[in-house]
Amino acid sequence: MRKGKTHMRPYYEMYSQEEIEMIYDAALEILADVGLEMTHPRALEMLEGAGARVDRKSNRVYFPTELTEKCLAMAPEEFTCSGRTEEFDYTAGMYADARIRTASGAIDRFDLYRNTTARLTCADIAEQALVADALPNVGCVGSLTPSDSPRQTYDIYSLRSLLENTRKNIWVLTSSSKNLFYQLKMLEAVCGSKETMRLGRNQGAGIFCVISPLTITDDEIERAMLYADYGLPVKVPITTLMGGNAPYTMAGILAQATAEFMGCTVILQTIKPGIPVWYYGLFQSLDMATGGVQYTSAELQATFAAVAQLARRCKIPPTTTCTTSSGCEAQQTIFNLAQGTMFNTLLGVAEQGGSGLDGNNAYSPHALILQDEIMSYTKRILRSCEISPETLAVNAIAEVATGKKEYVSAPHTLKHLRSEERLRSKVFSYVSAQRWFENPTTLMQKTDDYLTQIKSGHEVPPLDDHVLKEIDDIVKAADKELT
Q1: Do residues 293 and 323 touch, judged by C-beta distance below 8 A?
Q2: What is the pLDDT of residue 292?
Q3: How many other CB atoms are there within 10 angstroms of residue 318's CB atom?
Q4: What Cα–Cα distance (Å) separates residue 403 from each residue in 392, 400, 456?
């Protein structure tokens, strides 16, 4: 176990420094010798001016190691992700406090208590936003896909539901740069001005994707330029399929994914030096026995361990989607939530995607509540305990051992009863079997009761009327142009 320098949270390193250097060097070699496929004219000119070698006949850009490492050094090690107000800000960094990012991109809502599923609606997205606003460990709320909005502007409707119902930071997923223009205008309406957003008060984060293997589309570049203009930090999700669009070996997927992340970082830093980025490991595995896709497995968790160390090697914050369940069965989902959250927190992954089922095609409010509880439990473990002459209680032990033989009424107990931290769960039960059989309430039932409590009792202060009107006008303008 090592300790991080900022918050002194312990983290676990599974790979040797030599192994991490081998992956790092392989990624640099891939970028220098294989490069990225790109066609965006302005981006090609900018990269060529920065020192990349551009072959316009083959539409490939080759990145010298010196340029790649120079651009990696431009990205900040730590930065603030802002909420609607400062109390909902959180720090993204290699050693920052662990936070949950809710499910992103899902198309279904799954009820783990009732075992029912339905297409997501804007009302469901509002529910997700409200629940996320209430849960203490959620830092970022992901965009979902509503079925009751125009197909061409669904991402704009999703963002409206989020902005109106949460004060947390929002991961703004978008379908195109044209749609992103309107989404950024909506954020601007909430934040007050573009200048305010550029100064870091923007309530959002962007997304910059590579198509594996090693391909960047023109519209991805257009989106990157918009993020740069508004000053949003950008997650770089590497969505590779082990054995599909990436090598079948775990080391091979790490080499290709790290090269893709590095290449994206060079592009982003060339467009806007200093723009904050995450190395986002979003790997899946092709099951050669069945032809299916695994979204969570022991092998994938082992690659996430390497991503955490590689991100630290690059001095850039890591993030993973570590708890997505391949199915929707409650017991397996709970296992995935517990294993993924605890393991990735120990790895030092500060932002962890979660609450996704069926390969992140479905969102579950119950899974989100359970992950929040599991993260509270994990963080309490990692806070350990105070070791001092007073808490070691040598004198109290001597007094009780030679006296009343019980600590319930001992002065030392009364002194520390309120100061000694004890985690109190909202959904996990610690009653005896006899008491439970008298009222056999399941974990999912208690989670559902807590969900009902949040929905009926938690309030998000509404946006000002003029802001709501401005957002509504932006949505109408987007519908008019894009649909």
Answers
A1: no
A2: 86
A3: 27
A4: 18, 5, 51
Q: How far apart are CA 200 and CA 80, in angstroms?
A: 8
Give the C-alpha separation, 124 to 422, whole Å.
34
Q: Is the peptide bond before 247 cis (omega within 30 degrees of 0)?
A: no
Mean pLDDT by 10 residues, the chain (483 residues): 46 95 98 98 98 97 98 97 97 92 95 94 98 98 97 98 98 98 98 96 97 97 98 96 95 98 98 98 91 89 96 96 74 90 93 87 94 95 92 96 95 93 91 90 95 98 98 98 95
Q: What are phi and psi of 314, to 5 degrees?
A: -85, -5
CA 23, distance to chain mean position in Å, is 23
Decide: 285 and 312 in contact? Cβ < 8 Å. Answer: no
* Secondary structure class of 378 (helix, strand, coil): helix
Q: For the whole model, what pTM was predicted?
A: 0.94
* DSSP one-letter string for 30-79: HHHHT-EE---HHHHHHHHHHT-EEETTTTEEE--HHHHHHHHHHS-SEE
